[in-house]
Amino acid sequence: MSDIPNCPKCQSEYTYEDRGIWICPECAHEWSVGAETGANEEEKVVKDANGNVLQDGDTVTVIKDLKVKGSSLVVKVGTKVKNIRLVEGDHDIDCKIDGFGAMKLKSEFVKKA
């Protein structure tokens, strides 16, 4: 029982874990498993194909022909994408490409311009 943390809000010892989240039945406070140490709350660093760190608002260039799912269109090598937004998930770049519209890209297929 020593590995079960007390509630950070009310210090209750009757906490339990449910699908990766700790729950306090007394005050109904919920927190993630790594939240008590603060180590898992750091921002995820997104890097391009060359290892450069990407940030919101950067301009990137596509380094490989990318097929557009559900269409016969292809985003060609060398296409510049301006003003990217970083998001969580498998496709970690959200952007708009001229002639294609809104898209999600993987950072491994772009390089910082």
UniProtKB/TrEMBL annotation:
Residues 46-113 form the Protein YjdM C-terminal domain. Residues 4-32 form the Protein YjdM N-terminal domain. Signal peptide: none annotated. Pfam families: YjdM, Zn_Ribbon_YjdM. NCBIfam families: phnA (TIGR00686). Belongs to the YjdM family. This is Protein PhnA. It comes from Cohnella phaseoli.
